[in-house]
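Methods, example record. To illustrate the input and output format used throughout this study, we show the complete record for M4 family peptidase. The sequence lines were provided to the predictor; the line carrying structure tokens was produced by it.
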Amino acid sequence: MGGRHATSWSWRRGDDQVYAGRSECEGPCVSPELAMPQYRPRRQCSMINRTILPFLFAGVALSAGCADIEPGEEETGSTPGAALTAREQVLSTELASGSLLVDTISEAVRSRDEAKARAAFDPVLAPAVARFTEGAGQYGLDRDHTFAVRNVNLDEAGERHARLDHFYKGIRVLSSTPILRTDKDGAIREEIVTGLRTRISVDTTPRLREEQARRAVEAQPERTGEPLMQPRVELVIWPISKRFVRATSAPLRGDEKDLNALDVERRVVDTRLVYQVDTLDRGRGEPLSTYRYLVDAQTGEVVHKKALSRPIEGIGRTFNNDGPLNVFQVSIDTRQYSAGGGTRFEPLDTFRNFGVWDEDTCKTCGANADVADNIWGDFQAFMGDATATTANRQTAIADGLFGMQLTWDMFDLVWGRQGYDDAFYEGNAFVHSDTDWNNAKYYYLSGNIAIGDGGPSARSAFTSLDTVAHEFGHGLNDFSADLGDNSEGEGLNEANSDIIGEIAEAYDLGNGQFLGLSSIPTSPGPSYSQSASNRNFRTANNIRYWTTGLEDLEDEHARALPMDHAFYFMSQTSVSDPISPMFSVHTPWGMQGIDIDKSAHIWIRALLNKFDSDTDYAQARTHCMSAASELFGAGSTEHKAVANAFAAINVGAVASNYPGSAVSMSESEPNNSQLAADAVAAGTLPAGAPVVGPLSKRTMVSGIVDSSDPNDYFTISVPAGKTLRVTLAPYNDDDLDIIDDWGTTVDSSALAGTSWDQATGTAPNDGLPHTYFIRVKYYTTSGTQFNFYQLYVDIL
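The corresponding predicted structure is encoded as:
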């Protein structure tokens, strides 16, 4: 294996610019073919702006505006004659299983393996990795610890951001990912070690053999289908972490109140030698079933497992308002070829290097083989397997192609990244997966996406643009940060895909692809609501804050919601009205967002360059703050907006210039009648308060009502024409009244449980101040003797 080998290569990127390089490496070099695809075909294109030309051709769903012309083919008026590639030959075979996704799985897994190998190849970084390894003693690591490049991102300044795999005595350490930032020549500029695990102490000699580990997972309840490949087995080291309260080092119970995410830290408390076993089986109720198991290498116990697919589950809509279905005619790219003496088209994009296929047929059959006109679909939601025409089945193909191509182009034009791996990775999508499958998934072992039709009442929900882009986001994560080694990280993985779905929607609605924009249009903006899953960025589906119990939520999609919420605040706004779902108790004056373009650049920079597989919410804040500082400067408006957006979900503190608290007071007993009412202290509005919505003064009032003292009264003078708005934030179930100076109750609120009540009253515009009374009423709740409450008393 000794000796130095030199290799030189050139390749073409999407702009047809030729890149060249030369490297020297120890041992055999990676071939130029693996380093980068060398050829991208020319395209015939006629892009149609679907915003300007709605329903241009009535009755025709989706017109392919581009067809890839293979080498040796004429661009017009000739019979294409390109030979099929090895991958296309696999796709062309008649099906043995009735599932194109299943029958091409071996090729897909091999393709992903090769792409992962290419992503780790960068000879410029070898000296930097060696220097980091030599200097690892500063982090408490001895010479038993070594490192190797996992993947590299090259940013717009030519700097490299390399994630490293960590090895102890030659065995890979899970969830341990230092990141090196180097200049274009490979000199280290920054070492990010938040993801580095340093307390490794474990016997590295296993008692079990690999075959015993394979047998250990055979009886797992998830493995109900036929195996599609031999389980992959790797001996690894598993650092086991637990959470502690940072200030006291007390173990976290998970039900603590009033803790911020930065008050908690995760520490490695044990390390185990385990076999990582990856399985890929035919699914039951879904196309594929793929899992990762950790098997104790000494005892054979299955100690951990997780799915190696990322779904977007939930209810769906038949009508895709933010996708091409039933909305506009659009342009898609396909491949032209000859068969049976005639011209055909297939849903293969040889420029971007992926296809979108009808899973229920072969590659050259049915909906996958348009005969001559290169027009796909019928504008209609899927009619079901029993009644769907070929054109109707092709609508899902066209939806998928449009969504994949737009998202691909967005990353190419805005971030200069071409495909998941920035090297034209061939991740395919398969529509009509399974039967009435109400889901879509990205499969990590194959790099493919499967998209179901939705149930009978939710047809075509999962081919909407934001859903397709969501799954594309999982592919991007797969080839960059690989978020998901901890519970919060699984939520951040889903949030990342949610965010990419909304960014793609904004790019589409602002005609970004048609205009070739290198930024995300800020108008008209996306819906900030995932079409298929019904996850809402504005409301966060009532999971609005980070809490110590967030990681214990069973559904990783629920764990994504606070991050979705923070991204909305960062890009749009939070408000000062306490009853609004866009209000945060941690940023009570609201905040102004910095627009979706800047927010997207901050998030994607953090994803590609800073996040690692073990990143949690607190670390995500740190990395987004760092990304904002690099892009816009430390202390900039954008940098502060990131701090405030994370603070709004209880992750970290607000920016240093965020206004202080409102005037506050506590009740003074007795105040159980109008005659004994406490006067509300005069409120203020701090200078510089970023108030979103009408607000001129605020006072915070706290108190207690109970069964022996069921009423608290307060009095306040309201200027003529002004509105008094009172919001009751109870710890239990209390009710609220506003009473005018004539003794008339002008507004009440008696919502059940701990819902926040709000009541308003507007003073007559007669030039005189008017006295109003506020009453907080105790409501008996089981087992509760004292009801604590807070009032937001606002003058609008």
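Annotations derived from this record:
DSSP finds 14 helices and 34 strands in the chain.
The first strand starts at residue 4 and ends at 12.
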